[in-house]
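The following block was generated as part of the benchmark described in Methods. Ligand: beta-D-glucopyranose.
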Amino acid sequence: MDLYDRSIEIILANQAHSGAYPASPNFPTYRYSWYRDGSYIAYAMDLVGEHDSSRRFHQWAATVVNARADTIRRAVAKAAHNEPLTGSDFLHTRYTIDGNEASGENWPDYQLDGFGTWLWSLNEHQRHTGIELDAKWRTAATLVADYLTALWARPSYDCWEEFPDNVHTHTLAAIHGGLVAHQAFDGADHRMTLAALSEFIETKTRMNGHYVKFPGSDAVDASLLGLAIPYRVVDLDHPGMLDTVAQIEATLRKGGGVHRYPTDTFYGGGEWLLLTCWLAWYYLESGAYGEAQTAIDWVEAHVTAEGHLPEQVPENLNDPACYGPWRERWGDSASPLLWSHAMYLVCETLRRHASKQSAN
Ligand code: BGC
């Protein structure tokens, strides 16, 4: 079985009865469903025609949000009065597959990007199925849009669950992409927030030409790819985006795979499969098919004997001294990581489409 079919099989086999996608079935702290991972997985399922799988995820995700309408309204009201959010005033980033907050673990749960990604993924679901979104999903989407509108300018943990004191460029991109998507499927008017987001991104998150991880940093983070793909805050060939991709290639790609950011030490800071796919996705959308193929080949070369794609591989480590302690504590990197398989499916779908086009 090729990796494309195997990836679909792995995602379907691990989707819970509730519709939730666990981040990874074999890694103790990843048995939860994240909005970020799940929304990309649902998108990949829509691309490959597995609409029932994505429908079930969105149903789960909307139910989790609607059950927390009071929390969201409280957070929005506090933001309006410039009050800090406390203990239970925010949406967690990940939930048990039954839709509950994870208990007993101190996790950096205050993250906003996954909810923007969910709005984007909902719109993609509608586009790919041609079916109008369920009224309850739209209620949830409106709650999420209100929540993001109220909170985007405040610091939150980034998509890697770190740096809680900053406003993150990738998070802003995901929120921008989500609000544009919400306008598209709901007719909502987010123009004022979108203009403020764009202005913040252009004036505060660029240095020496390229975008940076967060205002004040001069480093890139591979998640900045999201500015162009899939959130389309800027064009693929926007000068700032071209400089950002050049920086990612120069500083985050020592071998064939892509690192998260230069000082990442999680598992020693290895090369991430899903980020290598993300770069390939950017190349494919830009028509750089040779570069895309090289990146996809690298990903395929790292599939395990069981046909699994891990989160990261310990190659060209940023900080080799950190690898041993992480491995001693948690074992190998999470594998299979469903988000890695999803990103591979996105690339492989686009690659096959492009090669069919060129054959015709
Ligand atoms: C990553 C997150 C991801 C989570 C589950 C974390 O290590 O930093 O981006 O959502 O794992 O895959």
